[in-house]
Amino acid sequence: MRGFVRVALAWMGAALALAVPTRAQKPPLLPEKDVAALANELSGETAKRNLEGIARFHRQRGSRGFHEAAELVAERLRAYGLSDVALLQFPADGKIFYGSQRSRPGWDAEVGDLTDLTQFADNSSPCKKGWQETVEKAHKEGMVGVLIVCFNVLANYQSQPIVLAEDSESADVAADLVDVGQGTKESDYAGKDVRDKIVLVSAQPGAVQDLAVGKFGAAGIVSFAQNQKTAWWGEDENLIRWGHLETFSVNKTFAFMVSLKTARGLRERLAKGEKIRLHAMVKAGQHPGNYEVVTATIPGADPKLKEEEIAFSCHLDHQRPGANDNASGCVTILEVARTLQKLISEGKLARPARTIRFIFPPEIEGTLALLTGRAQVIAELGPVDSKGEVIPGADKIHTPISLTLEFPKKIKAVVHMDMVGGGPETKAVFHVTRGPMSLPNFVHDVAWAFAEFVNEESYKFAATGKAEYPLVAPEGGKEPLRAEYSAFTMGSDHDVYQDSSFGIPVIYLNDWPDRYIHTNFDTAANIDPTKMKRAAFIGAASGYFLAGMSAKDVPTLLSAIESSEFRHASIFQRHRNELASHSTDEMNRSQLRINKELVESISRFAVVPGELKSKMRERLNALYVGDEGVPLKTQVLVEASQGYSRKAEPKGPLAVFGYDYFADHAKATGVATPKLLSYEGLWGGGEEYAYEVLNLANAKRPAWQICDEVSAEYGPVPLEMVVEYLKALEEIGVIEQVK
Ligand SMILES: [Zn+2]
């Protein structure tokens, strides 16, 4: 508690000192004319028109729908005049590994019909509506009875592709439906004969297929798995959730996704003892395919620095419509591409020293393929004229992406957008998310400086109807942005870039919650053009600043960092308070290391005099841990003094998309599941601890220090658990002991 009082005082001092800069009217970091040019050109409507195009496609990895979306993006990039527009393919056959990602074969579907074939011997059928006339006519004509067969369409892939779970296989089955509850435990099947029948489950198909199909011989699955948990969870009974089977399960099957409403109807009928017979007709399956990644650049101006890149990233895959997740991120970086290209080619913005790249991959797996694989270029599109036609014989400014394994080293920072179009309809809160504590970096402070500017301007406009930079799209909302500066959260391509095998810092812009995520109601209608304009502005301004950043920017940058870190220090402070009864030494130690590395990270972009660096460190240390500095207990832990370093392969985080490298290899080598993976800390869970323990294993840190660091990040965790996990990583060959 002593620490708290001291910090609180230091904090108040900082608040007074910073009151003026945070209230500044002038935009941060960039000349006002650049900011005005961006604010003026970025169009939420253009982004939305592109979004409406992408949202038409069912964009499963390696599918025709994904390819069509990729073609649309490539065509736009070309029409906007970007350089090096290319559609890259990385073979995906289920065998090739891209770092820790076992490639998942492509998957396509043509037919997916689920029909209720229930027969009724009388006219009490729920589908008798419309049959009444036929029944009466039949009686009049002296027939002895009428057999009514319902042909009630429960699901149709053509009209709503979301109804067929990804990785479904072909089938033509007529079978009875059996309700097995969740379907994930053996007891769910007790006393029920599901052999050759279709099971109705509340869990995701992938979580039940090995039991239902593999063990108990079911013919297929109907699932009404609900959405990710938020306050609105389960409220809308019309939502149909995107479903998945396990790509690599040997128990191949099909699965249909239905709404809660449909499922309730079926369950009620089954509970009354009614026999429900369904016909499932599926033409679908996995096939050797490709991960496709669209990319393009705005080449840098400096002969040397143009080899360095600032990348804009998103993910182009997901179910139709997938408007917020993640057509919104794709079209928003596309709008950044259009705007920067236009302003730079018209001379309204100076061409920055570094190259700016745009990347549109399938989530996580496409990014890992791009960073570790060698692509084939299937469509390489050169410069175009004003009508978007390729200029014959024109030189391409660059060869497309080098396709060498040196590529990741060129990327200095990434602006990643995943869900940036939500508004009042989706219940979105917009986050400017920092990186993991294993990779402290100033780029987050750059993003926050612009986000805070948009927060202020958009609030001023909402509250008074007047602001210099309202950043409102004519067809969009007028609500204030109210972006949050948030601690690292996982779950998108930024996990890959920020994994220690690449160590590339990522500005992550994202909405959460979203009550329609991964459902048929994640539609274009919910997407707010104003929101996309603002996300585009924050991204474009941050990326453009970083692409042009040099030593002359350092002084203004340092004050932006201090102001932004001041804001973030509140999270640190809250965590410290929660730990009042524990020692907070770990947190202080960790924060001192973070502050040091954060200041050092500026040197990747510009030369910073040593004196300025140490001053900056002192200021940050004062902000976080009090101006007297912290007297730390010297802790010598002989046990757990072993250090580990990461091997060159595999690159990437261990839990990726549709594949868990750790689980797969632990099973193969007989390693028991470490307790850390299911540990729940104060501010994070097993997956997060595991991600960071691996990232922090950098040869210099002994196990106890790694434990300290993750305790500071996600809450105290027993040292034995960290050691057990490190040993498991060593056994599966991901890390090795430092001698
Ligand atoms: Zn997403």
CATH topology tier name of the largest domain: Aminopeptidase
Ligands, deduplicated: zinc ion
Which class best fits the helix and strand makeup?
alpha/beta
Count of β-strands = 23
In one word, what is the shape? globular
Describe this structure in words.
With 739 residues, the protein is of the alpha/beta class. The protein folds into 3 domains: 31-104 and 289-549, 3-Layer(aba) Sandwich (Aminopeptidase); 106-287, Glucose Oxidase, domain 1 (3-Layer(bba) Sandwich); 635-739, no CATH class. Helices cover 37% and strands 17% of the residues. The protein has a 9-stranded mixed β-sheet. The chain has a 7-stranded mixed β-sheet with strand order 7-4-12-8-9-10-11, with helices on both faces. It has a 3-stranded antiparallel β-sheet with strand order 22-21-23. Helix 3 crosses helix 13 and helix 8 (323-345) packs across helix 13 (529-548). The model is unreliable at 1-24, 394-400 and 627-636 (pLDDT under 50). Zinc ion binds at residues 315, 325-326, 418-419, 492. Zinc ion is lined by residues 315, 325-326, 418-419, 492.
Write the layout of secondary structure elements.
Elements: H1 2-22, H2 32-41, H3 44-54, H4 64-79, E1 83-92, E2 97-98, E3 101-102, E4 106-116, E5 119-120, H5 132-140, E6 148-149, E7 152-156, E8 171-179, E9 198-201, H6 205-215, E10 220-223, E11 255-257, H7 260-271, E12 277-287, E13 289-298, E14 309-313, H8 323-345, E15 355-360, H9 365-372, E16 376-381, H10 407-410, E17 411-418, E18 430-433, H11 443-464, E19 484-486, H12 494-497, E20 506-511, H13 529-548, H14 554-578, H15 585-601, H16 610-625, E21 643-646, H17 661-669, H18 686-696, E22 698-702, H19 703-714, H20 719-731, E23 735-737
Helix pairs in contact: 1-14, 1-16, 3-8, 3-13, 8-13, 11-13, 11-14, 14-16, 15-16, 15-19, 18-19, 19-20
Zinc ion binds next to helix 8.
